[in-house]
Write a sequence for this structure.
């Protein structure tokens, strides 16, 4: 793993027009419809870059992530890793990809760790599967990984079972397991949402340090906008199976354009007594069903700025109001001058 | 109910709730004091396992079987409810005066009973009204929390998480209690739903003058509903302050650490984390319980600190010995 040469502009992972639809079966046979969990997603991930995918539950974040991990088969479109499409990989190639190129940090650490295995066994398992037969080498690598995630002193933890250690320590074991094969990409699905507030920051900082140290690419999936700033370079906002806004941290946090992003920003609280004095503006309704998403822009039924005859008819294209900042919303048509939402301070 | 002049809707003094387990006593709530004025809300902040939920259960007397000690004074509207026997307590206080929205309330609904019947039930049981009247009261509350009234005929699984949470709030509200205990009311919900529920709770507080005790570990969201803040650590309240001063400058070293650990959206501050983990409630350390994790600990911290009153803020820390007077 020492021969990594990072070319600046080359994408490590490319997602092209990705669609992941799940069939709904009607009592045994026939297709009653599709759950359009991921419906046309494009992005590129460069080596050493951290991106955050932000969205509410049920917006398709997890389906997108599972497709990247090779657990779902895309209905349409491609996931290209290092120039090679996942769909073209044979069984062996897929095993190589899954076991040594991507690591997965689950949301619920306790649920992700086998309760009958101790920490050493949990961390050895991927190495055994990968065919590392030398016991001493395995143990050395386990120790190294545990040092990296600061599960120290290592000897205290090696023989412990998941229920004997705290939530934060469990999450460290999960991270160590994801890291043990020296992957190039880490997919972290809400890695801190089950943890206590005081431990969250610690785990995020740990992930960030590992990312910088090993030049990892990280896909950080979350619903919490206040943590992304400490973690990623770019943010993608996902709504009902689509990425509605993509941009850098500065673009998204200080110059958000899409009405949905703005609603999310406004709904996020900072600790401030003034919050109690006022009501929040929240778009009405709930995210749409992914079986029959609304026609046109998927956010239009909840959007205060929706243009009748346009937003409810035609899907918006991606506009680029500033360099590298993409937004799928008709309001940003450069030829028209519509009223635009603004972020309240 | 006695209607004497009450400055406080709830006045808790030296409340203790210990559980007996094989290894000894778990001191989940250990000498808690605090007061709550009418129409105000207090937020109880703390890490998981610090005894927040046990405190709520102790106030509402929803106790598990292995309780070993349950002592102290709880005055609800001036009346010492600890003196009441269980049946009187159930008839006069629970749900009539104090109700609760439990943790993960969206999963606390009975799956085989329609929403409307569940919301109407407390009115039937505690107010003794007839079915039609109870249904009417339930309809009013269901409307108030923003659930369409035709959802009353549905079963919980037919509703989204946010709607179920609202139904659970309506259920706590249907008897129009003076005080509602909210145990992590928004922790399992999405961001926008969370903001919506907070709006609902604010409106209820304004319209009905209800007092709240909000129990949470989410400091940022808690500020949405806070008039006062109480910080709990290892079974004890270490700081009681008003929201304005607390969110600006907390006093207790633990509160300061807690505030510093909150990631901010609108400010460029690097969050810090608290090293170490909270002590076991089984054999809590003597002296100040935060001592082992505190950067400012000094010799005196081996003795248990009294609660000092510094300009109206109560803080249980030796650092404020010179500046404050001992409370009570």
């Amino acid at each position: 793993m020492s021969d990594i040469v990072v070319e600046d502009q080359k994408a490590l992972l490319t997602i092209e027009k990705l669609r992941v639809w799940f069939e709904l079966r009607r009592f045994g046979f026939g297709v009653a419809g599709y759950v359009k969990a991921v419906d046309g997603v494009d992005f590129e991930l460069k080596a050493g870059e951290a991106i955050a995918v932000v969205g509410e539950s049920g917006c398709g974040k997890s389906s997108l992530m599972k497709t990247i991990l090779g657990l779902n088969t895309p209905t349409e479109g491609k996931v290209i890793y290092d120039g090679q499409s996942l769909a073209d990989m044979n069984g062996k190639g897929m095993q190589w990809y899954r076991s040594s190129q991507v690591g997965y940090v689950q949301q619920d650490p306790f649920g992700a760790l086998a309760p009958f295995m101790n920490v050493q066994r949990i961390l050895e398992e991927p190495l055994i599967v990968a065919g590392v037969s030398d016991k001493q080498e395995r143990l050395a690598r386990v120790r190294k990984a545990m040092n990296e995630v600061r599960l120290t002193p290592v000897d205290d933890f090696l023989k412990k079972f998941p229920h004997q250690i705290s939530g934060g320590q469990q999450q460290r074991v999960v991270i160590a397991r994801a890291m043990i094969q020296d992957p190039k990409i880490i997919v972290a699905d809400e890695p801190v949402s089950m943890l206590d507030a005081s431990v969250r920051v610690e785990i995020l900082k740990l992930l960030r340090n590992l990312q910088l140290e090993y030049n990892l690419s990280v896909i950080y999936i979350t619903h919490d906008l206040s943590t992304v700033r400490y973690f990623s370079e770019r943010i993608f906002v996902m709504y009902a199976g689509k990425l509605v806004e993509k941009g850098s941290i500065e673009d998204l946090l200080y110059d958000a354009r899409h009405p949905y992003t703005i609603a999310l920003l406004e709904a996020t609280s900072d600790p401030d007594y003034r919050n109690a004095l006022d009501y929040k503006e929240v778009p009405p309704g709930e995210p749409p069903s992914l079986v029959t998403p609304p026609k046109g822009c998927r956010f239009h039924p909840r959007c205060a700025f929706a243009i009748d005859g346009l937003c409810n008819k035609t899907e918006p294209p991606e506009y680029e109001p500033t360099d590298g900042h993409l937004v799928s919303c008709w309001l940003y048509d450069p030829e028209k001058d519509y009223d635009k939402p603004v972020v309240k301070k | 109910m006695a209607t004497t002049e009450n400055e406080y809707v709830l006045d808790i003094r030296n409340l203790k709730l210990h559980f007996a387990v094989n290894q000894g006593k778990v001191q989940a709530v250990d000498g808690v004091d605090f007061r709550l004025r009418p129409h105000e809300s207090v937020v109880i902040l703390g890490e998981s396992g610090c005894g927040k939920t046990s405190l709520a259960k102790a106030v509402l007397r929803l106790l598990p079987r292995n309780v070993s000690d349950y002592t102290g004074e709880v005055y609800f509207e001036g009346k010492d409810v600890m003196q009441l026997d269980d049946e009187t307590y159930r008839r006069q206080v629970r749900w009539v005066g104090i109700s609760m929205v439990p943790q993960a309330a969206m999963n606390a609904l009975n799956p085989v009973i329609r929403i409307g019947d569940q919301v109407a039930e407390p009115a039937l049981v505690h107010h003794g009204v007839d079915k039609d009247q109870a249904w009417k009261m339930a309809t009013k509350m269901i409307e108030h929390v923003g659930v369409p009234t035709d959802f009353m005929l549905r079963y919980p699984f037919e509703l989204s998480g946010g709607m179920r949470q609202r139904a659970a709030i309506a259920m706590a509200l249907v008897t129009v209690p003076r005080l509602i205990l909210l145990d992590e009311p928004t922790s399992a919900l999405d961001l926008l739903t969370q903001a919506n529920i907070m709006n609902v709770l604010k409106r209820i507080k304004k319209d009905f003058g209800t007092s709240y005790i909000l129990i949470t570990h989410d400091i940022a969201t808690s500020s949405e509903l806070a008039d006062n803040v109480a910080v709990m650590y290892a079974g004890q309240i270490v700081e009681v302050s008003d929201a304005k001063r607390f969110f600006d400058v907390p006093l207790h070293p633990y509160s300061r650490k807690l505030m510093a650990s909150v990631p901010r959206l609108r400010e460029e501050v690097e969050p810090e984390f608290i090293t170490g983990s909270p002590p076991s409630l089984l054999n809590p350390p003597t002296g100040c319980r935060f001592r082992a994790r505190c950067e400012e600990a000094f010799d005196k911290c081996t003795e248990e600190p009294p609660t000092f009153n510094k300009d109206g803020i109560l803080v249980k820390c030796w650092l404020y010995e010179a500046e404050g007077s001992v409370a009570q």
